[in-house]
Design a protein that fits this description.
The protein has 230 residues and is of the alpha+beta class. 69% of the residues lie in helices and 8% in strands. A 4-stranded mixed β-sheet has the order 2-1-3-4.
């Protein structure tokens, strides 16, 4: 029973489940691939007095269970990767649109009489150059937002709007009857859009943009945010 519970809480099948109590190691079961060992230094899964903490070993199992074992680190890594990747995609799209608009303007003006010269010029014009400082900006912004979102959405909103998470996980029939959950959800949406975004997200973005991409003072960055928001 302890072996089955250990395997289930690790989120995978196991080939060996070992309970290490002091110098003794007792094999509990063999099922598939990987090893689970109980160690006092690896607080992952808590079962009962006999099997308290588990550590999942093996390359694939370590990777597969990493988001479950390290949710905060997963959140930060996703922010560091997805934000610059999205910006890279937008840089490619912006360059392509710029090339199309330039090409259309030249065609309307009758420029590019020689076909070979026009093709060579078009290839040179369409060449994509990555804006490294802009990519670094969004990498830093993704990391900061991952940390800030974890702080704000987990402990802060959980205390200010305790029924929002419960409301989100309910069925539609339950949501219709859950009036306190509806109030907490509306409160969270209001706080998110009226307080968290204008007071934290946008200032952080302009401060990072001033420091990483534009290399100006923080006061200038906040001044540009004030001008744009007003």
């Amino acid at each position: 029973a302890a072996a089955a519970a250990a395997a289930n809480m690790c989120g995978r099948s196991t080939s060996k489940v070992i309970a290490a109590t002091g110098a003794e190691a007792v094999k509990l079961s063999r099922r598939a691939v990987g090893v689970c060992i109980e160690t006092p230094q690896s607080p992952l899964c808590k079962l009962d007095g006999s099997v308290k903490e588990l550590r999942c070993l093996g390359a694939w199992n370590t990777f597969a269970t990493f988001p479950r074992r390290r949710p905060f680190a997963t959140n930060v890594l996703l922010g560091l990767f997805t934000f610059p990747f999205a910006d890279y995609t937008m840089q490619r799209i912006e360059r392509w649109r710029s090339y199309r608009s330039e090409d259309s303007a030249e065609k309307r003006k009758g420029i590019g009489a020689v076909a070979g010269h026009g093709a060579a010029r078009g290839a040179a014009t369409c060449e994509f150059v990555l804006d490294v400082h802009r990519s670094l900006l969004f990498c830093a912004f993704g990391g900061v937002m991952a940390v800030m979102n974890w702080i704000v959405y987990m402990p802060v909103f959980a205390r200010l709007c305790p029924g929002a998470m419960r409301f989100a996980n309910q069925s539609w029939s339950q949501k219709v009857r859950d009036k306190p959950g509806q109030v907490d959800l509306a409160k969270q949406v209001l706080l998110d859009n009226a307080v968290y975004g204008p007071a934290i997200i946008f200032p952080c973005f302009y401060l990072l943009k001033a420091a990483v991409q534009e290399r100006v003072s923080f006061l200038e960055g906040l001044g540009r945010y004030r001008d744009n928001i007003l």
